Amino acid sequence: MSTRLAVVADDRLLTESLEAWAAGVAGIELVVTVPSVQELARRRCPADLVLFSLSRDDLSALAQGVRRLARMGHRVLVVGPCPGGTAAALAAGAAGYLTKDQGLADLVRAFGTIAAGGVVFPARPERLPRLSPMERVVLLDYATGLTLEATARRAGIQPETAKTYLARVKAKYERLGRPAQTKLELAARVREDLCT
How far, in Å, CA of 195 to CA of 140, rounded? Predict the structure, then answer.
């Protein structure tokens, strides 16, 4: 069974390259390429996965686009140039993030991982704490700008529980010799671990 792929990208060279590439890849059916999320919504094309790419470093537009695509029911793979993009994309609901310097083999692997329900990250540093799924969710939301209360609300937990998860995350980083006691330090760890 083929994965129906939609591409939302404001870079014509990228969309034309993906169109040519997808024509020769088994298991991928490219159903549409459009320049904006609004255009995809207007066309109402059925897609199993949306590859979303912005040519500019605009984390706000990136997060807004991912949130809208997720609300439309799409799983989203972001391909982006900006170093802070991973955290912003995942916090907004993306299923994965690749940088534009990764190869087509990485893209194919990412499609398979996401189709199987997984999440895709770019390469990360070696000294990483082992975070539970809920610790990761709380860390991403909190470190990318949400208040503790908003983080808890999005995760469906009480603020005290979110605070406990953050304390565990901080302790795990501390054991690795990587300070993460303040919100700024947590944000720095997210950038280092998820955005490189």
Answer: 12
Who contacts 18 (Cβ-Cβ below 8 Å, separation ≥6)?
Answer: 7, 9, 30, 33, 51
Q: Rounded distance, CA 93 to CA 115, Å?
A: 15
What's the CA gap between 12 and 128, in Å, rounded? 37
CB atoms within 10 A of CB 78: 28
Residue 13 phi, psi dihedral angles, 5° rounding: -60, -40
Q: What pTM value is reported for the model?
A: 0.64
What is the rounded CA–CA span in Å between residue 173 and residue 34? 41
Instruction: State the Cα–Cα distance between residues 26 and 1, nearest whole angstrom.
Output: 10
Bridge partners of residue 159, in order along the sequence: none
Q: Are 30 and 9 in contact (CB under 8 A)?
A: no
Ranges of the chain with pLDDT below 70? 57, 81-84, 122-127, 194-196
Angle at 62 between CA 11 and CA 195, to 5 degrees: 100
Beta bridge partners of 21: none
